Amino acid sequence: MSACQNAHQLHPEQHHINVLEMRNETSKVDYYMPKTCQQCDNPPCVSVCPVDATFKRQDGIVLIDNERCIGCRFCIAACPYSARTFNWKEPKDAELYADVAYDVELNVPQKKGTVTKCAFSADRLRKGKLPYCVSACPNGVYYFGDANEDLVTNGTTKKTVRLSNLLKENAAYRLMPELGTKPSVYYLPPRT
Ligand code: SF4
Ligand code: SF4
Predict the structure, then answer these.
(1) What separation in angstroms does the CA of 151 have from each of 74, 107, 144, 173?
(2) What is the Å distance from ligand 2's center to 56 Cα?
(3) Atom 7 (ligand 2): residue with closest C-alpha?
């Protein structure tokens, strides 16, 4: 969360990725659940935007162009995963970014009155690097990769494995698949 917030000029209460503390009511076991934009293949946030400020790229990543965003927040209402956050006040360290050119893949400089969310660190991918959160995790929690290549790399161990095997062997699931949003993020159930 810190790596992401530092990269994206976010205040502590703003999240592109939020690690939630969860409890399994049956086993009473606590676990953590990182929640980010699910990078839906059928994203309801995109279809409601009246000015095409949020859009899905050919590689599947959903981005926001802050220079087009008019702050209507329709996309926040449409997102069933609460993945978007609104810049109600001046972004963190706004003065440091005053002369920085806008980077739509990094979504920085942030702008008061616009919406922001996880972009799968599209700026890092362009440089051949894993996303900020994936690289920062010390516990090997995150795998990231290309579904078409069926390969994902662990951010901590740097081990690359078949995505299809990882999902099958761990009974992976997606959040609210019944909505038809086709999320690109999969979860592996907690182990006790
Ligand atoms: S999780 Fe929400 S913000 Fe992200 S692509 Fe899906 S609908 Fe859009
Ligand atoms: S808040 Fe911005 S990105 Fe969201 S729907 Fe409105 S114009 Fe589009």
Answers:
(1) 34, 26, 8, 17
(2) 13
(3) 69
- CATH code (residue 158): 3.30.70.20
72 C-beta closer than 6 A to ligand 2 = yes
Say whether pTM exceeds 0.85.
Answer: yes
Contact of 185 with 36, CB cutoff 8 Å: yes
Task: Provide the domain count of the chain.
Answer: 1
Domain of residue 147: give its range.
2-179
Of 34, 5, 18, nearest to 143 by C-alpha is 34
Evaluate whether residue 190 is within a structural domain: no
Residue 173 exposure: Cα atoms within 13 Å on the Cβ side: 8
Residue 53 CB–ligand 2 contact under 6 Å: yes
Atom 6 in ligand 2: residue holding the nearest Cα: 72
Digit-by-digit pLDDT tens for the chain (192 residues) are 999 999 999 999 999 999 999 988 887 888 899 999 999 999 999 999 999 999 999 999 999 999 999 999 999 999 999 999 999 999 999 999 999 999 999 999 999 999 999 999 999 999 999 999 999 999 999 999 999 999 999 999 999 999 999 999 999 999 999 999 999 999 998 776
Q: Give residue ranges with CB within 6 A of ligand 1.
A: 37-40, 43-45, 62, 79, 81, 83-84, 117, 181
Q: Is residue 26 situated within a structural domain?
A: yes
186 located within any domain: no
Q: Is residue 191 part of a domain?
A: no
